[in-house]
Design goal:
Low-confidence stretches: none
Largest sheet: 7 strands, mixed
Bound molecules: nickel (II) ion, manganese (II) ion
Strand content: 25-35%
Number of helices: 6
Strand order of the largest sheet: 6-7-10-11-12-13-14
Radius of gyration: 16 Å
Structural class: alpha/beta
Mean pLDDT: 97
Length: about 240
């Protein structure tokens, strides 16, 4: 897999750390301390000082340690306004809120917030508070390489718009089923997104997430898409 200078580390579940071309550290969906799939040595610190955190939605397995890491590393959190507001109420100083369809430059990347079909509540002291809507992100690097992180989502027809407008080179897609797409739906998503490469995520972390990379790979192998199954803690690029 050629990531054109970008380094991608999977921390298990939907959590990825990306090192940009100028060596900034981006953390997506920072589910670390409670993440059964995250290697123990990476649970507290994510392995690096983090500059930017992207959050796709409010569920605990995505919002995770966002507040703690943002405060520890003085990182900027990118999320939908409802989640940024909640994080500020938790003491987070730097938020860069945005909404679907828009883009913003942050450090040396351009981040676009895109649609996802999923829910987004925030568990707060035993209650579920409104977290806006779930989203995905397209991250464009200075060399125009693009990564799409789908967040938690069902397959939806407007993934075709993500292809038409942004042409992601690499898609990070949930395949675990039950709460998101399973392998069959994720394979269909590939037929809409036409990425060059896919890394499956959000499977195997909990017993309910039964989809396997093997099934997924089998379904997309005829599409000419490179499927790379990562191990938690592994870095590519
Ligand atoms: Ni979720
Ligand atoms: Mn999830």
């Amino acid at each position: 897999m050629d990531l054109q200078g970008i380094k991608l580390t999977w921390l298990g579940h939907a959590t990825f750390r990306i090192e940009t071309l100028s060596a900034h550290q981006i953390l997506i969906d920072p589910f670390l301390s409670q993440n059964p799939a995250c290697p123990p040595e990476l649970k507290s610190a994510a392995g690096s000082k983090i500059d930017v955190i992207l959050v796709t939605h409010g569920h605990g397995d995505h919002l995770g340690d966002a507040a703690a890491i943002a405060q520890r590393d003085d990182a900027t959190v990118v999320a939908i306004p409802e989640i940024c507001g909640w994080l500020r109420s938790q003491g987070v100083k730097q938020t860069a809120e945005m909404n679907k369809g828009g883009s913003q430059e942050i450090r040396d990347v351009r981040v676009t917030m895109v649609h996802a079909v999923h829910s987004s509540g925030i568990e707060d002291k035993g209650a579920m508070v409104y977290g806006g809507e779930a989203c995905g992100y397209v991250i464009e690097f200075e060399n125009e390489f693009k990564i799409y992180h789908a967040g938690d989502t069902a397959v939806f027809g407007d993934m075709h718009i993500i292809h038409e407008l942004y042409r992601p080179d690499l898609a990070l897609l949930p395949i675990g089923d039950h709460y998101t797409m399973g392998p069959r739906e994720a394979a269909y998503a590939c037929s809409l997104l036409h990425p060059k490469m896919v890394v499956p995520m959000h499977y195997g972390t909990f017993p309910a997430l039964t989809g396997t990379p093997r099934e997924f790979k089998h379904l997309v192998e005829d599409m000419g898409i490179e499927v790379v199954t990562m191990k938690p803690g592994q870095t590519l690029g």
